[in-house]
Design brief:
It contains 9 helices and 8 strands. It is an alpha/beta fold and 234 residues long. The chain has an 8-stranded mixed sheet with strand order 1-2-4-3-5-6-7-8, sandwiched between helices. Strand 7 (176-181), helix 7 (189-198) and strand 8 (203-208) form a beta-alpha-beta unit. Helix 2 packs across helix 9 (222-233) and helix 3 (87-103) crosses helix 4. The longest helix has 17 residues, at 87-103. The chain starts with 8 loop residues before the first helix and ends with a helix.
Length: 234
């Protein structure tokens, strides 16, 4: 969704500040920054395909409660960001967010890459090239082609490709926390397990019983922040 579509009142409720970034190809990007009291690490949150930053308020609150500052970035074509989305464009946007955190004074060892759904592929791609403190993947998938095949067996693999996390995650040395709902109706949990198998140690997989694709944070409740805090500390 582009601005003004969305729940923009959430910004005031979360206390997030507007920030503006510029990607390597000159596209101007918008995001929210939540500093968090006493936070010594920072999370680059890369959201999923639908909506925009305004629909990630619960995730922002949970990550902040876990002790991390949060840069919640809208990709090109989303919210108030310029341009239109593409796979290569999303990768540039994520790298711009990473560079912004470095310029803010956070060391590579203090940056957590946190992806949700489509954003997991963006996070994995960045983690395959840049060092970070940790990698958090919510409702991830092995590749776009595998997702398409699960929806349209046979034909799906011909119609869609790209976002190939399975071929990239082995290049990341970052500790991994993978979160998936057992009843995910969009991305089958088996695709999350397939990606998990390809990842390097140390890694952990947290399966939320009964959770679907869009209610992981709500289903986890207070455990979401607790698990993240433990992961950051490990």
């Amino acid at each position: 969704m582009r601005y003004p579509q969305g729940w923009w009142h959430v910004q005031q409720e979360t206390g997030a500040e507007d920030v503006w970034l510029t990607a390597a190809d000159g596209v101007k990007l918008h995001g929210w920054w939540a500093m968090g009291k006493g936070a010594k690490i920072a999370t680059l949150f890369l959201h999923g395909n639908a909506g925009n930053v305004t629909h990630r308020g619960e995730a922002l609150r949970g990550i902040s409660a876990a002790g991390s500052a949060v840069l919640l970035l809208d990709y090109r074509g989303y919210g108030k960001s310029e341009g239109s989305p593409s796979e290569s464009g999303l990768y540039r946007d994520a790298e711009a967010g990473y560079a912004w955190l470095l310029a803010k004074g956070y060391a590579e060892s203090a940056i957590v890459l946190h992806g949700e759904s489509l954003g997991t592929a963006v996070a994995v791609e960045l983690a395959s090239r840049k060092p970070c403190r940790g990698l958090v993947l919510e409702a991830p998938f092995s590749s776009a082609r595998d997702v398409a095949r699960s929806v349209l067996p046979g034909l799906g693999g011909v119609l869609m490709w790209g976002f190939d996390s399975a071929s990239k995650i082995g290049k990341s040395k970052a500790p991994l926390l993978l979160i998936h709902g057992s009843d995910d109706e969009v991305i089958d949990i088996e695709l999350g397990r397939r990606l998990f198998e390809r990842a390097n140690e140390p890694k952990q997989m947290w399966v939320l019983p009964g959770a679907g694709h869009n209610n992981i944070v709500e289903s986890a409740g207070a455990e979401y922040a607790r698990r993240l805090r433990a992961f950051y500390g490990s």
